[in-house]
């Protein structure tokens, strides 16, 4: 799973969010390392919806514009859990190898 996909799913894991709120949540979750642009975000949201990982929760009109809220599906939650486990395994393996080489910290 690519990092932006992971962060988008993580951003809607606890509550439905609209596009701009997802952009802010992704930036916050990544410590500012990932900054999604609108075109990238909406393309990703469309792809994730097609894959059944997220779905539209509701729509509301705000200042004459439609605001669409997205939520994670049960399939999306399972995919996110699987990716979290994979990342933990990889980080643990990397940490173990680093400890063997440097005794607990980088040189």
From TrEMBL:
InterPro entries: Metal_resp_DNA-bind_regulator (IPR052509), Tscrpt_reg_PadR_N (IPR005149), WH-like_DNA-bd_sf (IPR036388), WH_DNA-bd_sf (IPR036390). Residues 8-81 form the Transcription regulator PadR N-terminal domain. It comes from the Bacteria. Transmembrane segments: none annotated. It comes from Paractinoplanes bogorensis. Pfam families: PadR. This is PadR family transcriptional regulator.
